[in-house]
């Protein structure tokens, strides 16, 4: 019985695959179907609920093709991108759009957020698939569709995804450092109350833990 359908990317030739955690959450078995039609059962090596990412491994004797990875930090608003995945189980679907925004936070999807916003259609089943620039490089991992309306979709920057994926591949979990302070954005009003001339840089430390 198929309980969930999603997408993913091969991150190395040895069969390691990265996808969204919510795609494989609470599943007893995970079946991977590659673009050439071959199917494999996958082992979940680890997952990170803070970024909604999971690393899988399939056993194969052949060397799998590796994708090209770009840099999300070089993306500009208005730049064309493509989303590839399996929306509603429709294999190999490609949609095209532009970068609508970068560094989106406080959306309530994940604990750590710095999303790429795009108007390329991302539907159920696209989760975990790649967001690709016009050079064919993966710049993000498609992860969420906003409930606020159509045409608003989000992807995890590829740098975050690969860092988390490599830790999950090696350790099965993600280790993070913690700084015992709470922070908030330094607004013009707060800057004025502290007699500060600059408010465009820095944050306000509002608690110590």
């Amino acid at each position: 019985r198929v309980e969930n359908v999603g997408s993913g990317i091969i991150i190395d030739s040895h069969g390691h695959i990265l996808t969204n955690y919510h795609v494989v959450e609470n599943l007893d078995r995970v079946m991977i179907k590659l673009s050439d039609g071959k199917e494999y059962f996958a082992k979940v090596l680890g997952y990170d609920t803070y970024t909604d990412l999971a690393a899988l491994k399939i056993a194969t004797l052949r060397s799998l093709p590796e994708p090209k990875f770009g840099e999300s930090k070089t993306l500009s608003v208005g730049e064309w991108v493509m989303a590839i995945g399996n929306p509603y189980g429709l294999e190999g679907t490609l949609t095209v759009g532009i970068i609508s925004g970068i560094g989106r936070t406080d959306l309530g999807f994940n604990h750590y957020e710095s999303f790429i916003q795009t108007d390329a259609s991302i539907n159920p089943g696209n989760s975990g698939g790649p967001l690709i620039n016009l050079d064919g490089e993966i710049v993000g991992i498609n992860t969420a569709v906003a409930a606020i309306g159509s045409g608003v979709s989000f992807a995890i920057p590829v740098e975050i995804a690969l860092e988390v994926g490599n830790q999950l591949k090696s350790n099965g979990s993600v280790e993070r450092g913690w700084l015992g302070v709470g922070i908030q954005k330094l607004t013009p009003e707060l800057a004025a109350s502290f007699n500060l001339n600059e408010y465009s840089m820095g944050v306000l430390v509002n608690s110590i833990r």
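The chain has a mean pLDDT of 88. The CA atoms of residues 22 and 30 lie 12 Å apart.
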